[in-house]
Design a protein that fits this description.
- This protein has one domain (about 10-190).
- About 20% of the residues lie in helices and about 35% in strands.
- The protein has helices at about 40-55, 135-150, 185-190, and strands spanning about 10-20, 25-30, 65-75, 80-90, 95, 100-105, 115-120, 125, 160-165, 170-175, 175-180.
Length: about 190
Amino acid sequence: MPPLPVIPGVYRLALLWTTGAQDAVNVIHVGTNLGLLQAQVLADVIAAFNANQASMFASVSLAAALEQVACTPLDGTSGTVVAPCLAVGQAAGQYVPQSAVIVKLQTGLRGRLNRGRIFLPFTAESVQVNGAIPLLVATTIGNGWSLWNGAIDVIPYNIALGVASYKNALFHPVIGNTCEIQTGTQRRRQERNR
């Protein structure tokens, strides 16, 4: 695996999900221009997850928990710090292991390197029909991620969700997001069931 790029003021967050039987990881990025301590960024991010979990994770099965968040500053020297999180899935019923709800991140710039996606794991059977989730659930999730992004962007810290281009060592703040109706999958999650 190639080394992580150096992007000052940007943090790589690995969201570590588990059901006890299976695990999933989401990687997102946040940035700030204030030179915050890693512990402060991590504390603010986790507090916002815990406060907004009802909407952000409306499609995720109650069997799943976002147990930990691993924070790595993209400064080229600092190590990763892992902290516990209390967020859990919000939907009743069994989960579909290879199914994921997709949250698209828009930065206002064109091109693949300026767009991002979050694959929410462990989609509950109760919120999907024929590979799609209801519009109300998608709207709830999209609004939840917007609220979370607003919650971490409080004065004086001004942390923002963004898209990091490892190829170009750039970070662009997210200006909007949408949750797709059609579910998707990641090859790694599909292959673990075979």
